[in-house]
Amino acid sequence: NILSMLKIVVLLNIFVETMINKDQVESLAKDFDYVDVLFNVAGFVHHGSILECEESDWDFTMNVNVCSMYLMIKAFLPKMLPCKSGNIINTAFVASSIKGVVNRCVYSTFKAAIIGLTKSVAADFLEQGIHCSCICPDFMARQKTGRLIFLQSAYVTGTEAIIDGGLRL
């Protein structure tokens, strides 16, 4: 129905300041009785090596790339449990698991943390019918990741789908 579609649009227009604020995320979640799919795609790219990263850069990148997904999962996962079904899709980055990328130390570190978060949530809630997976696009494939919700079938959970156009070959 139209109300459900409007709620989906609301979720797509969340700003970074909202996603890293626990009270605002919890308030947003209260507007939903049930959630079918949670697609976590937030990310901030810190440019530079570890030597060019200040503690404030590290903290901000952690908050946007990992804490925001933690807060969103914690707030919206309970909306999936009563129906014993739901799909959580987290977005990491190809460099988080298979290849190092110059000047992406901080970004890659926290995107790797998302893979760990994904696998833990998948293991913890598999028996309750919740599937949690992670897509890992490269920079070129990022524009196409919105089409990948189909990967969230009943047999896909706890996985990393690496979408890199053959980069790792």
Layout of strands and helices, then pairs:
Layout: H1 2-12, H2 16-19, H3 22-29, E1 37-40, H4 55-76, E2 86-91, H5 105-125, E3 130-137, E4 160-163
Parallel strand pairs: 1-2, 2-3, 3-4
Helix pairs in contact: 3-4, 4-5
Give an account of the 3D structure.
This protein has a single domain (2-163), classed as Rossmann fold (3-Layer(aba) Sandwich), CATH 3.40.50.720. By secondary structure, it is an alpha/beta fold. The longest helix has 22 residues, at 55-76. The chain is flat, with a radius of gyration of 16 Å. It has helices spanning 2-12, 16-19, 22-29, 55-76, 105-125; strands at 37-40, 86-91, 130-137, 160-163. It has a 4-stranded parallel sheet with strand order 1-2-3-4, covered by helices on one side. Helix content is 39%, strand content 13%. The protein contains 5 helices and 4 strands; from the N terminus they run αααβαβαββ. Its EC number is 1.1.1.104, 1.1.1.30. One of its GO terms (biological process) is siderophore biosynthetic process. It holds the Pfam family adh_short. Belongs to the short-chain dehydrogenases/reductases (SDR) family.
Task: Please outline what is shown here.
Its EC number is 1.1.1.104, 1.1.1.30. With 169 residues, the chain is an alpha/beta fold.
Fraction of helical residues? 25-40%
| Number of helical elements | 5
Number of self-contained structural domains: 1
Backbone shape: flat
The assigned CATH architecture is: 3-Layer(aba) Sandwich
CATH homolog superfamily: NAD(P)-binding Rossmann-like Domain
The ordered string of helix (H) and strand (E) elements is HHHEHEHEE
CA gyration radius, whole angstroms: 16 Å
Beta content: 5-15%
Mean pLDDT equals 78
* Strand arrangement across the biggest beta sheet: 1-2-3-4
Poorly predicted regions: 148-152
Q: What is the CATH first-level class name?
A: Alpha Beta
Structural class of the secondary structure composition?
alpha/beta
Sheet with the most strands? 4 strands, parallel
CATH fold call? Rossmann fold
Q: Work out the number of β strands.
A: 4
Q: Termini distance?
A: 45 Å
